[in-house]
Amino acid sequence: MIVMGFLAAMLAAAAPGPGGAGNFVLVNGTPVPLAEVSIRRAGTQDWKALQASPAPGAKAPVTFKDDDCAFDIRAKVDGAPVTWAGVNLCDVKSVTLKKDGSAGAWVDYDQ
């Protein structure tokens, strides 16, 4: 009984929020312009272009609605494709895409 309750709690925590992902602000935290920005549900193959391609340090609002929370964001950075994998878009105000030659690609969130 205790194990089943624990499993149910774990599954509930892993499930998407009731509203899923919604509008957010995309921030370019790289030192170069972003090009060909696109998004997909994490683990799928269906990329969809985003109209946002902010300059370095700039912000772009993204109108977005999906029942899921986990997404991959892809953009060309300095001419090379970069993917930010497993980005959580539930309950966030903004997502800052960052990239460093030694650390790789990561995301900072403003919730």
Topology, element by element:
Layout: H1 2-14, E1 24-28, E2 34-41, E3 48-49, E4 59-62, E5 70-77, E6 80-88, E7 94-100, E8 104-110
Parallel strand pairs: 1-7
Antiparallel strand pairs: 1-4, 2-3, 2-5, 5-6, 7-8
Structure characterization notes:
This protein has 111 residues and is mainly beta. It has one helix and eight strands. The protein has one helix at residues 2-14; strands at residues 24-28, 34-41, 48-49, 59-62, 70-77, 80-88, 94-100, 104-110. The strands form two sheets. A four-stranded mixed sheet has the order 4-1-7-8, with no helix packed on it. A hairpin with a 6-residue loop joins strand 2 and strand 3. The model is unreliable at 1-17 (pLDDT under 50).
Give keywords.
111 residues; mainly beta; four-stranded mixed beta sheet; four-stranded antiparallel beta sheet; 1 helix; 8 strands; 12% helix; 45% strand; globular; disordered N terminus
Largest sheet: 4 strands, mixed
CA radius of gyration? 16 Å
Find the structural class using helix and strand composition.
mainly beta
Distance between the termini: 36 Å
Helix/strand order: HEEEEEEEE
Adjacency order of strands in the biggest sheet: 4-1-7-8
**Content of β-strand:** over 45%
Mean of the pLDDT scores? Answer: 84
